Amino acid sequence: MNKPGSKQIEVQIMGQSYLLSCPPGGEASLLDAVERVDTAMCRIRDAGKVKARDRIAVLASLNLAFELSQKEAVAFQASSFGQPENSAFAEAGGAFESEPLDPQTQARVDELMRRLDQTLDKDGRLL
Questions:
Q1: Cα separations (Å) of 10 from 3, 59, 62, 91, 107?
Q2: Rounded CA gap, 67 and 33, in Å?
Q3: Cα separation of 39 and 36, whole Å?
Q4: DSSP type of residue 7
């Protein structure tokens, strides 16, 4: 099913054709993603240990997700958020004194904290 305004592009991944929907102006990004996936899948296939296409796809996606996670971690550490000694929190002496939040904002903060806790539940609570 093609969304209005989107374009269909035929691509090849590991020798198999796929017809993908692409938003206007997103062709270059989509083709870059296809190239990365194709390269990752072909590398796993060519190593010879895994033959099933679905397993190759899962392993390739895990490898790509891991690489992305590593790049995000490096970028975070390079940002002011990853540098506590340079943060506004540190500049404030390690604590913020603020006005109480209005009920709507407090409810939103509580909901976001609940979602973070739920997401990070395997590793323990965020705060």
A1: 16, 23, 24, 53, 46
A2: 13
A3: 5
A4: E
> Would you tell me the crossing angle of helices 53-78 and 27-47 to the nearest 10 degrees?
120
Residue 17 tokens read as: 């054709």
Rounded CA separation 10/94 (Å): 54
Helix (H, G, I), strand (E, B) or coil at 16: strand
Cβ(43)–Cβ(34) below 8 Å? no
- Mean pLDDT to the nearest integer, 27-36: 95
pLDDT tens digits, residue range 80-125? 665 555 555 455 554 445 567 678 777 777 777 777 666 666 555 4
* Mean confidence (pLDDT) of the chain: 79
Q: What does 95-121 look like in DSSP terms, one character per residue?
A: ----PPPPHHHHHHHHHHHHHHHHHTG
